[in-house]
Design goal:
Layout lengths: L1 H8 L2 E9 L3 E6 L5 E4 L2 E3 L2 E2 L7 E6 L7 E8 L4 E9 L5 E4 L13 H15 L20 E3 L4 E4 L3 E4 L3 E4 L5 E3 L4 E9 L3 E9 L2 E11 L6 E2 L4 E5 L9 E8 L2 E3 L1 H9 L8 E2 L8
Parallel strand pairs: 1-8, 2-22, 9-11
Antiparallel strand pairs: 2-6, 3-4, 3-7, 5-6, 7-8, 10-13, 11-12, 13-20, 14-19, 15-16, 15-18, 16-17, 17-19, 17-20, 20-21
The protein binds zinc ion.
Zinc ion (ZN) binds next to loops.
Amino acid sequence: MKFFLILCLFILSAFAFDVGNGKSLVVTLDGPQGVFKLNDRNITILPHPTYPNKGFVIIPIDYHEQPHLIEAQWLNTNEHMGVEINVTCATYPTEILTVDNAKVCPPPEVLQRIALEKAEAENIYNHITPERYWNKPFIRPIDSITTSQYGSARTYNSVLKSYHGGVDFRAKTPLPILASNDGVVVLAKERYYAGGTVIIDHGEGVYSCYFHLSEFNVKVGDPIIQGQNIALSGATGRITGPHLHFGFMIQGIQTDPIEFMAQINTLFTQPFRIVQNTSQTGQ
Ligand SMILES: [Zn+2]
């Protein structure tokens, strides 16, 4: 009898979501408990910021991922829920840029510096702080127009092919840069390619990044509140002119910042994408 009851509760349900390469998926779960499996990886189920009886997962998709179907699963107390994630091919523009040649073919004396800065950033992004520092929607760091969107296929000085890992905002004169949300400063320094850089840890593997700054108003270890003036925009690093480069690293993956904010902010403004228990009602 007990076995029969367990079988009745073990209902296989399928939910399907589309997500482009370079984008991220934020999915609300109709319960804060269980395990969310993505291939062989366990994704941490995070407490929902507005509904204590729900949880959510963030699934960032790398820019270089090809279209394919991911069979994910949410294993909670009563059910085994199938979640299909269909990775699609997002459409991105192309850009041809001319910058200082030393930022495309760096001289030998800066190669060690570049390698150290890369390793330092990877160490930061691969660390997941278990606590969450924010409890409200993310905001744009500057009130200005976008001059280059995330994901553009870029060619620098006709030789270096790359893609744009963030979004650029116009800032012809130095403008105050505002923290996208509460967090802690984990990097504030001049770097070879990114120029003046601030990185804020928001907890749970979410980092916001601000590049090409001319002046810092914060230092490593400073607690930050949303909207705080953390720096002035500038024209440092690999640039074609003054602007703010703004990005997000999510669980070590560089994803579209504007689209990520739109997704994560739905946690505060329904409707959100949800995987619901089929054996329960009235959550
Ligand atoms: Zn940029």
